[in-house]
Amino acid sequence: MDVFRRLRGFYLPYMRYLVLSIVMLVLTTALGLVYPYLLKQIVDRVIIGREYRLLLPYLGLILAAAVVKGAFNFGQQYLGQVFGMHAAYDLRNALYKKLNRQPFSYYDRVHTGDLMSRMTADLDAFRQFLAFGFNNLVNFVLLTSFGLALMCSLNAWLTAAILVLLPVLGWIAVRFDSLLWPAYKRVRKTLGALNTAVQENIMGMRTVKSFAREGYELGKFDGRNEAYYASNLAAADLWKRFFPYMELIGNLEVCIVLFVGGWLVIRGDMDLGDLVAFFSILWYITFPMSQLGYLLNNWTQSVAAGERLLEILEAENPITSPVASYRGKMRGRVEFRGVRLVQDGQEVLRDIDFTVEPGQTIALLGKTGAGKSSIVNLIPRFYDVTEGSVLVDGIDVRDWDLDALRRQVAVVFQESFLFSTTIFANIAYGKPDATMEEVARAARIADAAEFIEQLPDGYRTIVGERGLGLSGGQKQRIALARAILADPAILILDDATSAVDMETEYTIQQALQEVMRGRTTFVIAHRISTLKRADQILVIDGGRIVERGTHDELVRQDGLYREIFEMQFRDRDEFSDDWLRAAVNEQRGVQW
Amino acid sequence: MVMAEDRRLDDELRAPFIYRDDDTLDKPFQYAQFKRLLRYMAPFPKLIWGAFAATAGGIAVALVTPYLIGRTIDVAIAGKRTGLLAALTLALLALYVCNFAAARVRIYLTNKLGQNVILRLRQDLFSHVQSLSFDFFDKRPAGSVLVRIMNDVNALQDLFTNGIINSLTNLITLFGIVVIMLSLNVRLALVTMVVVPFMFLLSTRLRVLIRRSWQVVRVRMSRINAHLNEAIQGMRVTEAYVRQEENQRFFERMNAEYVEKFRRATGLSAVFWPIVDITGSVGTVLLFWYGVHLLTAGEVTVGLLVAFANYLGNFWTPISQLGQLYNQLLVAMASSERIFEYLDTRPTITSRPQAPALPPIRGEVVFDQVVFDYAPGKRALHGVSFRVQPGETVALVGHTGAGKSTVINLLARFYDVTSGRILIDGKDIRDVDLATLRSQIGIVLQDTFIFSGTIMDNIRYGRPDATDEEVIAAAKAVHADEFIRQLEHGYFTEVRERGSRLSMGQRQLLSFARAILANPKILILDEATASIDTHTEHLIQLGLRALLRGRTSFVVAHRLSTIREADQILVFQDGRIVERGTHGVLMRNKGYYHHLVLTQYRFMA
């Protein structure tokens, strides 16, 4: 019940639909019971009592009852659905909004698949309970009590005879559903596994074909295809085991009513009309009983689903703007003061101190996992420091308005992510009202303009999951253009050109020189050639700054930087620097 | 008008997100296609007849019982014959028990039949898709192939499980009811059946409307899901670029549109049963109105009237199920058309009939005047010729699109040459069995594909029968062992294509291990361009050296260290080999190669 209390904000505003729906449901049920009553009247009074003038009025009543009942039935179903639908709409928006503001650490923890199943399956389970689960429970109680009351009023003995079997039916129904649920879960699971196998096979087709592993893939597929087949048959087996029993019990009731009822009529303890009416009511009470399992399950599922939704809605978010926040224009001075960062109990960074003046370029170098990305992620507050502070323009980033801070800092991530839309809209992601000229200019600087313009649809080309497949290098260049267009005071390039070849990287660097002027730029890269022009180079190892200085200073020291430098430049040891310089100069005169 | 067009174009250009919907979801009935579908049921005659018999048995009971109940009321109860009442009740009980048994058999057999057909159909489709060539996959996004193998096949499940068997039995039921009613009383039967055509109409037409309206809802839902999926995956970008408010507006509009479609569909659905109910009552009213008429004339009895009321109720089920079948067929037509389209696509690259197996090779490779057009009029290679001795390393150098990848793709016979020929150990590769060719060629792609499973499984992909020790030895040989052991569960760490924590360099080392395990005589290697941390880079170079030893190797090379050590360098420009020779010779020539090397290195100076 607690779940429903915590989620009440989503459905209380629409309670009027539910109330109206339930009123109509009660009326529908009541009118449903009028039908057997009218039938009894026709048999008793018209046929047996020979009051033929009553026939037409009774038939008219039957028709009228059917029409009115139909209208109410429509109303109760529709309004119930509208109730669930509105609540689900609000809930979906609220979940989306919440997810849009969750910190990066949250997304490090959760899986996309898990969030997806909460936003779809769980949300729908909850909606279903609101839309008809609740109604059905009310209906169940009403039908059984109305039905039993009416039966009792017709004949108590006959009712008692039926009551013997009803609990058995209910028990079977509940047992059935408790087994059916895991069986269908298993069907979905095997379907998921089959889906993964097929998907990987198609996506990895080059690998499959180059190792001539089609046979092996067929074997893997067959295994999963058969598992899916088996789980489907297992679910069908449950139907086979339970459903005929439920049907049989319903039919046994018919036999009981016929025999006991018939005997009562023969003895003169009951009217024939009552017996006919009894048959009609029988259906009203056996059918919901066979649904009991489903109803109870619907209820427990919706509680569990609601809890999983609340886990999202009530998740903590420590990274928010303070009340009195700073939102000025950024110049780009960055200062780290004694920064320590602990994530999942592990110390990722410690003793990080450095200052960058506006317009400077600072490079970070180190092994994978050394902590380079962790440092730059603290600037736009993707994470908060554990100790110490990060200041931008002398103001602690935690005192900045979050949106104002992030709008003036642009990051190009290691893994470039493109959305399913046009290349234009992807570049303009941070500035949706950009003009075509601005977008094209950013693309040119990122060395993306040329390949984009060669596409048949140019900037209108749809990319992303279902769109055109771009190479890793092309994606990176679009991501870079996105950052350039955002016109930030601080530009962060987190290994942003890893997938482009050396020549393209060179072109991009030349073009970036112009963009970087007047902006503070952070560059993370592995190639010394990318870093060497930086005003300051920080060499990171094990979460600490182990060396700092310019390229010329660092190369002279006997440290990690020098070691990396030598490894990378071993390739060209046959050319002396002088030889290369001369050759390049000579070449500049040649037209290719 | 022109302005409106511009506006539309501009909206599309700036659309925050664009989601394409699936293909059409239903198609008109086509007999030939239906027959082809039915053929998938042919291997299971026992299941078909069994299911048919059980279903028919169940229906027979359903038809006889109303009559029996009617007789019991008329003769036994109205006639006050207790003995007869007991006998008839027992008979009824016996029938119900038969029905119980028939239901068990029916549920079991129909499901078994349907699932078997689906199993086979999917097997056929998947193994056929496996045999298709690269040109097939080049043209289609992976997602659309997946949808056909999974969703389109599943869409036929209902049809095969219940649809066909039920509809046959339902036709018989309808016929049976009509016959029984007519034989009991012709005039009453005709009057009662007045509502039947209307029921048919409801069951087909209204159902079509309802189904389509739910399809619209599902399409909207899958757009929402597609968006949620990418919104979650791209959330870091959204937060970094402060796009939350625009996205929220987009999502709320999407959500509102979905809710509107949902309202329509749920409204239509809510209308269905009330209308069915009302139609049923009209039938009942007609029955009693005319029945009482006949009763007074002494033509019918009360029991008969009750029996007729029951039969009227029994009409609805078969009509409803036939209507359902009608809808299932429309859906099945669209899905099966898409399935058959794939099944009818012939692979372009196949082994010739009775092509001999390629015996274990030494690794001599000859390209003889090879021309390749990837589309008519679009030539990728213009008469390329070269010879490689067993064990040599060849570096392929040149810009993107110069023809390096084409050479590699032709050598592994992913495509066939347009003219000229490719010889391995003197044999034209088109004349030997494809599988024996490819299993002797190892390919290491720049973009290594990681299958979900353990690291061990992924390396073993190179040779499924390799022992754990052999896998580890392969990893050690290419210097991948070190990083693998540092992973949480070592060789048994679970990885998958997306979201796996392996870096680019680590993935490449894994694919080296895969290739060395397969131990091919000819190795093709597409060197990665990604910058990798210097330590891993060092490992890769060591691994590479181990991998190349003793094999004929083709390397699309980016690193100077690899190129320099090659026995032969082929320099490509616009689909032609413009220079060839060793590094020393080519550098001295000061030609195109010399230029390429310098452009790569000039910014280091």
From TrEMBL, chain A:
Keywords: ATP-binding, Cell membrane, Membrane, Nucleotide-binding, Transmembrane, Transmembrane helix, Transport. InterPro entries: AAA+_ATPase, ABC1_TM_dom, ABC1_TM_sf, ABC_transporter-like_ATP-bd, ABC_transporter-like_CS, P-loop_NTPase, Type_1_exporter. The chain crosses the membrane at residues 14-35, 55-75, 129-150, 156-176, 248-266, 272-296. It holds the Pfam family ABC_membrane. It is found in: Cell membrane. The keyword Magnesium does not apply. Residues 334-567 form the ABC transporter domain. It is a multi-pass membrane protein. It comes from the Bacteria. One of its GO terms (molecular function) is ATP binding. GO terms for cellular component: plasma membrane. Its main location: membrane. The keyword Transmembrane helix applies. Residues 19-301 form the ABC transmembrane type-1 domain. SUPFAM superfamilies: ABC transporter transmembrane region (SSF90123), P-loop containing nucleoside triphosphate hydrolases (SSF52540). PANTHER family: ATP-BINDING CASSETTE SUB-FAMILY B MEMBER 10, MITOCHONDRIAL, ATP-DEPENDENT PERMEASE MDL1, MITOCHONDRIAL. This is ABC transporter ATP-binding protein YknU. It comes from Alicyclobacillus cellulosilyticus.
From TrEMBL, chain B:
Keywords: ATP-binding, Membrane, Nucleotide-binding, Transmembrane, Transmembrane helix, Transport. Pfam families: ABC_membrane (PF00664), ABC_tran (PF00005). One of its GO terms (cellular component) is plasma membrane. The chain crosses the membrane at residues 47-70, 82-102, 159-182, 188-210, 271-292. InterPro entries: AAA+_ATPase, ABC1_TM_dom, ABC1_TM_sf, ABC_transporter-like_ATP-bd, P-loop_NTPase, Type_1_exporter. It is found in: Cell membrane. The keyword Protease does not apply. This is ABC transporter ATP-binding protein YknV. It comes from Alicyclobacillus cellulosilyticus. The gene is yknV.
